[in-house]
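$ ./design --mode recover --in tokens.txt
reading tokens...
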């Protein structure tokens, strides 16, 4: 499913961000006397541990989604699936158990149990519980692999499941239900007691302890919400796969919610974590006895992040784009379609954009542009990319305009010869830069992380050419939507599935560039971007992401192209019969496209 593949991206990225933060919080809770002497923070510490374990299961789930279960080919990967399934089942019960311990802790607090002798045994009881739960984790992990328990990752539900549901999941369900019932009763009693103390006895309530109670309620809320959502889905919405994905996403976001609540509602913990992070950052940034401070440090960090992003953008998408270009050129079903021919040229200019992204990453890492001629040539290509990309989008919109209005001019093909003009203009620009006859002043700006021209005329020509092409495209799409409304509700004419898919792909390819250009056109947004370092950084990252966004929109609705590309990427060379099966079974195209060029 495309939605599951989209969710797999944050599943892979989030663990790299959340796990270091949890490790930092665990260090603070273990090292600071203000925290480790309180029993409630001891429970918070182990909640951070188990949330970190869930982040590992999230990472493997994202990898499984991205690889489309290709891991089953290797039997050596099977133990990872079993282990992660066991960890996922262990997490659900243990997280509920720890939430119950927090509820019991607040119950003891609200009844002043810490003034009695029984409170002396509370920490010992907690430690016995912690020993049992970690011992259970060890036994469950080892025995699951030894007995080869049927833990599987279910792609349709985006979650780990136990195949023998009559035995494994029923016990898991009732254990969680028991812990949740006890926790809810404790929270209700605590709430009633607090209301009694506040409004009847007029007693003062310790604000810090009450904030801990509020934080515990926030930690407990995702469990109740997840169980209710699971019950509703299983009984009323089990036929809708999107709701199962929503449940899996909510379930995997529990550690993120916990992290935000812990840091937001506990000022002391947040202060200690920030101080520790600054110390670590200080040690990393000390080099040769000097410390980079303030704006220079921020710009250096942005440069490193930008360089990493540019390099990843190139290495991740250059090979898939090469395969897509090969497929669009070699397959008759695509090559004989004028819409896909234009998309081929859009992919080609995106490859050109990726080609100048890798040198930009090298510039960011080295903080130098090496050769002046090289920088000017790359800058010229970057300035050529935006208007060319916009013109090809306008051609695609014009193609959809002809299809919707059913215009079949005999000389339609001549409109598409403008692609030769575009590629010729690239050669002219590069020759002009190399000859040095005209000073176009292209350079790489390290402050904004983009190729830039100091010649205002060049900037104005590029800006207004791109804006004009986008304005024409917007007008064509507005006319197309008006015509489609007329055909559907007045003439009772329906758009074919293939033409509808191509129209959606064209609009989705148009929107990102249009939004980015509009933000530079309006004075308010332009001043905000130019005046804010981080806004400039975000804008440039989004601009560099245009090839990635266009690649996603190209594959999003075209399951035939998805199938062919997936086979090429994961299995290398393949047989023609297998490819034909992938193409004709696809839900996008119910029958082969005719060999005419009018689709």
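writing sequence...
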């Amino acid at each position: 499913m495309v939605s599951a593949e989209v969710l797999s991206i944050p599943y892979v990225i989030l663990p790299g961000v959340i796990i270091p933060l949890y490790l930092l919080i665990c260090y603070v809770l273990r090292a600071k006397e203000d925290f480790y002497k309180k029993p409630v923070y001891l429970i918070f510490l182990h909640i951070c541990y188990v949330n970190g374990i869930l982040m590992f299961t999230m990472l493997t789930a994202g990898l499984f989604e991205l690889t489309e279960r290709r891991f089953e080919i290797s039997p050596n990967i099977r133990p990872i699936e079993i282990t992660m399934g066991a960890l996922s089942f262990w997490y659900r019960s243990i997280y509920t158990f720890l939430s119950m311990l927090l509820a019991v802790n607040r119950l003891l607090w609200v009844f002043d149990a810490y003034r009695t002798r029984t409170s002396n045994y509370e920490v010992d009881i907690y430690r016995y519980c912690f020993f049992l739960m970690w011992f259970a984790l060890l036994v469950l992990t080892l025995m699951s692999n030894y007995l080869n328990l049927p833990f599987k990752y279910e792609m349709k539900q985006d979650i780990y499941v136990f195949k023998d549901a009559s035995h494994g999941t029923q016990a898991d369900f009732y254990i969680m239900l028991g812990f949740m019932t006890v926790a809810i009763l404790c929270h209700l009693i605590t709430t009633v007691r607090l209301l009694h103390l506040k409004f009847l006895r007029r007693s003062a309530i310790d604000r810090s302890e009450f904030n801990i109670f509020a934080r515990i309620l926030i930690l407990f809320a995702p469990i109740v919400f997840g169980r209710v959502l699971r019950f509703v889905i299983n009984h009323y919405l089990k036929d809708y796969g999107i709701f199962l994905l929503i449940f899996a996403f909510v379930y995997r976001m529990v550690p993120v919610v916990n992290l935000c609540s812990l840091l937001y509602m506990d000022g002391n913990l947040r202060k200690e974590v920030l101080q520790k992070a600054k110390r670590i950052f200080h040690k990393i940034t000390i080099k040769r006895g000097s410390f980079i401070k303030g704006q220079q440090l921020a710009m250096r960090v942005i440069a490193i992040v930008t360089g990493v992003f540019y390099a990843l953008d190139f290495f991740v998408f250059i090979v898939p784009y090469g395969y897509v270009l090969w497929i669009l050129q070699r397959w008759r079903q695509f090559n004989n379609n004028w819409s896909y021919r234009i998309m081929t040229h859009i992919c080609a200019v995106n490859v050109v954009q990726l080609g100048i992204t890798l040198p930009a990453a090298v510039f960011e890492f080295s903080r130098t542009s090496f050769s002046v001629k090289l920088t000017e040539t790359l800058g010229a290509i970057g300035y050529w990319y935006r208007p060319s990309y916009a013109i090809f989008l306008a051609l695609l919109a014009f193609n959809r305009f002809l299809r919707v209005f059913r215009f079949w001019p005999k000389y339609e093909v001549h409109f598409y010869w403008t692609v030769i003009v575009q590629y010729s203009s690239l050669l002219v620009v590069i020759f002009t830069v190399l000859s040095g006859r005209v000073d176009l002043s292209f350079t790489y700006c390290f402050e904004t992380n983009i190729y830039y021209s100091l010649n205002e005329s060049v900037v104005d020509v590029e800006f207004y050419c791109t804006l004009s092409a986008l304005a024409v495209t917007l007008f064509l799409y507005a006319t197309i939507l008006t015509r489609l409304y007329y055909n559907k509700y007045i003439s009772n004419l329906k758009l074919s599935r293939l033409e509808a898919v191509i129209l959606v792909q064209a609009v989705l390819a148009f929107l990102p560039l249009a939004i980015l250009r509009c933000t530079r056109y309006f004075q308010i947004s332009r001043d905000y971007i130019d005046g804010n370092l981080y806004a400039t950084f975000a804008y440039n990252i989004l601009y560099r992401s245009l090839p990635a966004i266009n690649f996603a929109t190209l594959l999003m609705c075209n399951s035939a192209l998805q199938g062919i590309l997936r086979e090429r990427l994961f299995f290398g060379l393949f047989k023609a019969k297998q490819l034909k099966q992938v193409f004709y079974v696809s839900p996008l195209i119910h029958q082969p496209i005719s060999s005419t060029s009018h689709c």
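exit 0
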